[in-house]
Amino acid sequence: MLGAGLGLIMRGGATTGGSDMIARMVHKRFQFISTGSFLFAIDCAVVISAGFLIGTSEALYALINIFLSAKVMDTVIVGFSSNKACFVMSARWQEIADRVMRDMDRGVTLLTARGAYTGTERPTLLCVISRSEIMTFKRILHEEDENAFVIIVEAHEAIGDGFSVMEK
Q: Which residues lie across from 149 on neighbouring strands?
């Protein structure tokens, strides 16, 4: 409940005036650090120092609570990630792209990547899919090129055709 409440407060653009205000300022400066992670670090330091006074078992329970609250807060702020960004490197990139566009009705972006070791340019496919489409995507990859190199990462938000609408 604490994490959900803090997440809603932060999502609304406010703070409680405590350590979450510092976490928000750090996140604005260093966007790669999530607000929840920095808040966890601050609160963790406080609990560890207080652990000498309150006892180790109570401090461990407090750390678990802080960790879970930070995760819930980040989820409320960013949203549930149900989309995946898929990067595919394959010699059969054209066949894979055609199948994804035809069978899954998803767009595919062709990127040019250069191998650091060989220096050769290779086509790389980028496709954003929903979580429910992962098995279909993997089946297509297996059928077209089972030796393809694939990276599937969380896409915290996908805005555009086939996904959510841009909010004002």
A: 89
C-alpha dihedral, 69 to 72 to 78 to 81, nearest 10°: 150
Q: How far apart are CA 100 and CA 108, in angstroms?
A: 7
pLDDT tens across 143-162, in order?
A: 999 999 999 998 877 777 76
Q: Residue with structure tokens 């199948």? A: 99
pTM above 0.90, yes or no: no
CA distance 91 to 63: 48
Q: Order of strands, edge to edge, in the sheet holding 109-114?
A: 109-114, 121-130, 83-89, 149-155
Instruction: Give the Cα separation of 95 and 92 in Å (integer).
Output: 6
